[in-house]
Structure formats: C-alpha cells, structure tokens
Amino acid sequence: MPIITSVTASDRDAWLRLWNDYLTFYASELTDEVTALVFARLAAQDGLHGACAL
C-alpha cells in the first residue's frame, strides 16, 4: 500500500529528476533560481504543500 508523506528537503534529488522530465516533456526551460523556489514552496509547511507517494 502506498504511503503518502509531506515533501521534505531529503526528497529534492528525486523530485528534481521528475521536475526536469516535466520541463523536457513540455519543452520548457526555467532558471535554477525558479526551480529552487518551486521546491522550497512544495517543501514548506505553510502555503503550498507537496506530497510524495512511497
């Protein structure tokens, strides 16, 4: 059974691989600063929340 958890800093490497594939699929490019901001918002405990299925 999958386990759903909040995104944490330790998820960054796995998330980054998925993020880069997403950007490639949509033929998009973003700066490293924007990528860092998106992940920071997903891993934050206030505002936007991200979740991981393990």
Q: What are the secondary-structure elements, in order, as H or E? A: EHHE
According to DSSP, the number of beta strands is 2
Shape, per Cα inertia axes? globular
Let me know the largest β-sheet: 2 strands, antiparallel
**End-to-end gap:** 9 Å
Report on the structure:
- It contains two helices and two strands, in the order βααβ.
- It has 54 residues and is mainly alpha-helical.
- It has one domain.
- It has a two-stranded antiparallel sheet with strand order 1-2.
- It starts with a strand and ends with a strand.
Characteristics of this structure?
54 residues, 2 strands, mainly alpha
What's the quick description here?
With 54 residues, the protein is mainly α. Helix content is 48%, strand content 11%. Strands 1-2 form a two-stranded antiparallel ribbon.
